[in-house]
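1st attempt posting a full record on here, be nice pls
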Amino acid sequence: MGSEPHIERKAAHAPAWRPDWDTYFLKLAMLASERATCPRMHCGCVLVKDNHVLSTGYNGSLPGTPHCYDVGCLVVDNHCVRTNHAEINAICQAARHGQALAGATAYVTNLPCTACAKALIAVGIVRVVIFSDYHDSLAEQFFQESGVALDRLKMPSAEIHYDLSSFSSARPFDEE
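the predicted structure (as tokens):
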């Protein structure tokens, strides 16, 4: 058999960097935005309840259709209509998987546009957390009228704090 179980306390203290929940989910939204397919805006959305990710989305073309990066943006009234916005894609992803969203929080890289704000309200989102604004949006007004909390936080660092060499149980792949 193996050795006897024991408690090992190698670290003298907790990690220097451990994000709070809001920062963690905003960074996930930033990561989701990297999948965006439209050069006019990269937006990410993470829908969360009880600190559990329910769904993610980014602004991107409809499934099976061309991406803006490949064929250009289809612009109507200064908006690209080739893509769904991140919030709509997150809501659709949740619906496709039977995930209820009532009582959830939306972490979004930008203030939602008016249409996305209305969709978030309609599915029961109770809190929206952002770190940047969006032009010509009535989102703030609709959130206030609907009792949806809107929290503006500082943009989190884009840096990922992961030091493989500091973990005694981790082994890097052999580089060949």
